Amino acid sequence: APGSNEAVAAPGKPKQEETRVPVEVALARRETITASFQGTATLEADAKAQVVTKTAGVILKINVEEGDRVRKGEVLAVLDSDRQRLNLQQIRATLSKLENDFRRQSELYERKLIGQDLFDRARFDLEQQKAAYASAELELSYTQIVAPISGVVSRRLVKVGNLIQLNQPLFEVDDFDPLLAVLSVPEREMQRIAPDQPVQMLVDARPGEVFLGRVQRVSPVVDSGSGTFRVTAEFRDDKLRPGMFGRLNVVYDTRDNALVIPREALLGEGSDAAVFMVENDAAKRVAVQLGHIGGGKAEILSGLS
């Protein structure tokens, strides 16, 4: 019938129907859009220390366990110190004798009863013994195993009663405040990323939670092999742990009142970007100039209103 949308079949030929494709239409609207770089990284501690012994001995006491938070200088373990204490007592006794000898030699020297060489020898012996006493005190202090940094005990490698040798590892201490994520960023982004920019992160271990951080530092050197530079982001949150895998979003610009459309409406990107615009109930291809793209949205600088 006239005005019908259906095609009329010719005599003797089967009737053909129109092919219709369903589409979804969205409005170009004014919104806030952010520009960002996305990447992945594994969290690592800002500071990590392996606690080793500076003397040999048997462990008598362990004061901390894995997961305990410690302060710098806190005693983590105690070694048998009998040998060091006896040595210190012996040196202290000799030091007291040499101090008395030096006082007598000083009196005799002032009265011109002894020569300069005898006085100098007594003074030298006293100074040498003072140095030996300080060394013995230091050796005794090494039986107290202390934390070199503040942080959390991540590993305990020994037990009470173990015989410890010089420079043997006993503990590992990690400083979780902050935790760092190191990104390898393409060099084309170098002018856009700077320290203190906000960073958002998702981790598999805490699904649905967004952790906020900041760019701590940006390397000024581009790796010639990969064409990337290092960006270090820091996070301060008790829920995060070293070794967690994170998906990071570094926000380097925010524009208010930008003209945006859904990113999935784009037919291409760069100089070939275009969209289908609805005009008089028909889809018309229109070239557009893009701005920022992110968060499922694309900024349109020209081509649409």
Itemize the secondary structure elements and their pairings.
Layout: E1 29-42, E2 44-52, E3 57-62, E4 69-70, E5 75-79, H1 82-110, H2 116-141, E6 144-146, E7 151-156, E8 163-164, E9 169-186, E10 198-203, E11 211-218, E12 228-235, E13 245-262, E14 274-279, E15 282-287, E16 289-294, E17 297-302
Antiparallel strand pairs: 1-13, 2-9, 3-5, 3-8, 4-7, 5-6, 7-9, 9-12, 10-11, 10-13, 11-12, 13-17, 14-15, 16-17
Helix pairs in contact: 1-2
Provide structural commentary.
The chain has 305 residues and is an alpha+beta fold. 18% of the residues lie in helices and 42% in strands. It is built from two helices and 17 strands. Strands 1, 2, 4, 7, 9, 10, 11, 12, 13, 16 and 17 form an eleven-stranded antiparallel sheet that branches. A four-stranded antiparallel sheet has the order 6-5-3-8, with no helix packed on it. A hairpin with a 2-residue loop joins β16 and β17. α1 (82-110) packs antiparallel against α2. The protein starts with 28 loop residues before the first strand and ends with a strand. Mean pLDDT is 89; it is low at 1-8.
Count of DSSP H/I helices: 2
Uncertain runs are: 1-8
The percentage helix is: 10-25%
Mean model confidence by pLDDT = 89
Assign the structural class, choosing from mainly alpha, mainly beta, alpha/beta, alpha+beta, or little secondary structure.
Answer: alpha+beta
| Strand fraction | 35-45%
Largest sheet: 11 strands, antiparallel
Order of helices and strands: EEEEEHHEEEEEEEEEEEE
Question: Over all CA atoms, what is the radius of gyration?
Answer: 38 Å
Q: What distance lies between the first and last C-alpha atoms, to the nearest angstrom? A: 40 Å
What is the β-strand count? 17
**Envelope shape:** elongated
